[in-house]
Amino acid sequence: MLLGKSKETQIKWLRTGEFMNFKGDTEKQAILRDKIIKKGKKLERSIYFSKILSFLKPKMRVLDIGCGTAHIIQELAIHCKSAIFLGLDISPAMLKIASLNTKEVPNIRLVEGDGLELPFPECTFNIVMTRLAEYSPKEAYRILKKRGIFFQYGLGPEANKEIMEFFPNRIEKENFFIPRNMEQWKEEACKTIKDADFSIISLEDYKEYEYYQGEEEIMDLIEMVPLVKNFDRKMDRKKVKELAEKYRENKIVKITWHYYIVEAIKA
Asked: Which of 107, 144, 237, 238 supports an S-S bond with 266, CB 3.0-4.6 Å?
């Protein structure tokens, strides 16, 4: 549903039809994600944000698949007040926080739905984007207008390598990118997008470090994603402490992040 909107408005707004209810991330994960994001660096400085902003034009319709707590579309909507932004997420807990974050931004709507089966008509959006979320490239292609732009922000194969090092047998593989061939990982990252008939404009990857104050913040990260199967803060504290001691620099712990951004177009 469109949060805070009547049934009539839901049907009229963007011709979205009926929406289904799903589950997704838990309330605890949503709170941790919102906390970590707000504590991090300025979004306006990120490469992902800048790329999307460079394509934005007045009155465009933009969909964020797996919008989470809506921090990206919140900032984009402030920069481009005449465009319409729709954030879709499978998690009611994420959308609850997203609705609080965006309540003062009138050109944002929030939808509870599944990225694998998007509840929108064909050729609806000018831009579709997704960041670290499960989605269907074919569905993204279907709902884009001709010459519409698609952005996928994913984790590269070296992301969180410190955590993988200390929990090699318990990593949540679906939340890591483990390519079949390390030398050809970029081709692998683009494959499903190409198979959906998109034309790839570019794939850009970059590495950076995130800094954590100690074990508690690292455990927040592990639980937020999640990164480790059956993680228990009490039982696994010793292992996290060993990780923190190994990668601590000047009283902070350095964790590697590796990202890639795919730009593609519906020809």
From this structure: 144
